[in-house]
Specification:
mainly alpha, Serine Threonine Protein Phosphatase 5, Tetratricopeptide repeat, 2 domains, 17 helices, elongated, PPR_rpt, PROP1-like_PPR_dom, TPR-like_helical_dom_sf, PROP1-like PPR domain-containing protein
């Protein structure tokens, strides 16, 4: 360390600034080295020190290491803060560990720490990762009773737990609650709603394409501009159900809205054998406009067999 070369002793704040840099760049080994050096210097890590290490390991998906520092923090007499729990819950959410996230929530309540939108969202994200819609919906109602400020991210995360299972009824129930709460949906909300339709049983009696169109039109009517990811999801749903005419309608709307198609849009279009004439014409037009490069539309074979000769 440069400061030690000049005969100076680094303080806790010095190491914390190093942890901050490591957290931004996700340098786990470097952070671990600084932490051990800090202990060797006889310095006592504070809440910021532990929070940084917990956050780094959480982002890297190493939940056990994050838990280890969380436990070490408490054993050393440093009280966890709301930021500590937020970092731990984000780690649990990434792993889909609902029980771990719930334990953090219970401890926060017991310590009377503020339940921020980010913390509540992390718990709901854990439920979504675990495809546990029942739990997500139960926690959503508890959060409302606790006076947590509801926003579009909270409702969307709860919907996602149902959407991941393709459970349309649960997803719609939360969407209606979102509207009744006067919370405006965003592009991510409609992505989740369409995803739910894509994952629902294809033999469902519900017209899933019409269902998704209904969501999308309602959100557009509320002045929410869809992005390329939303419209790609809608077009891909049409592809799954072989509703190519509807898919082209949304493709045209995409271009009318000034939204530039991307490689995934082209990949979807390449599978439309039933409308090859119009498909080829649109792909040609996209190339001529420079919206899609020519090589983006070529099929590539992966592997050592069947490579086309140049």
């Amino acid at each position: 360390m440069e400061i030690k070369k000049h005969g100076l002793s680094p303080e806790v704040g010095t190491y914390n600034r190093l942890f901050f840099t490591c957290a931004k760049q996700l340098k786990i080994a470097q952070a671990e080295e600084w932490f051990n050096m800090m202990l060797d210097e006889g310095l006592k890590p504070d809440a910021y020190s532990y929070n940084s290490l917990i956050s780094i390991y959480g982002k890297a998906g190493q939940v056990e290491s994050a838990e280890s520092y969380f436990n070490q923090m408490r054993l050393s007499g440093v009280n966890p803060t709301a930021i500590t729990y937020s970092a731990m819950m984000s780690a649990y959410a990434q792993a889909g560990d609902v029980e771990g996230a719930e334990l953090c929530m219970d401890e926060m309540r017991e310590a009377k720490l503020e339940l921020s939108v980010q913390i509540c969202g992390a718990l709901l994200n854990a439920c979504a990762k675990a495809c546990d819609g029942e739990r997500a919906e139960r926690w959503l109602h508890e959060m409302r009773r606790d006076g947590v400020r509801m926003n579009e991210k909270i409702f969307t995360s709860a919907m996602d737990a149902w959407a991941n299972k393709g459970e349309i009824e649960g997803m719609e129930r939360i969407f209606r609650l979102m509207q009744a709460s006067n919370v405006k949906p965003d592009a991510m909300t409609i992505c989740v709603l369409i995803k739910g339709c894509k994952r629902a049983r294809i033999d469902s009696k519900v017209d899933l394409v019409a269902h998704a169109e209904h969501y999308l039109c309602r959100i557009i009517d509320r002045d929410v501009t869809p992005d390329v990811y939303v419209l790609n999801s809608m077009i891909d749903l049409c592809r799954l159900h072989r509703r190519h005419t509807v898919a082209f309608i949304w493709l045209r709307k995409m271009r009318k809205l000034g939204i530039r198609p991307n490689k995934f849009t082209v990949k979807i279009m390449e599978g439309w054998r039933e409308m090859s004439g119009e498909r080829a014409a649109i792909l040609k037009e996209l190339r001529e406009r420079g919206e899609v490069r020519a090589h983006d539309t070529r099929r590539r074979r992966v592997g050592g067999h069947g490579r086309s000769k140049r």
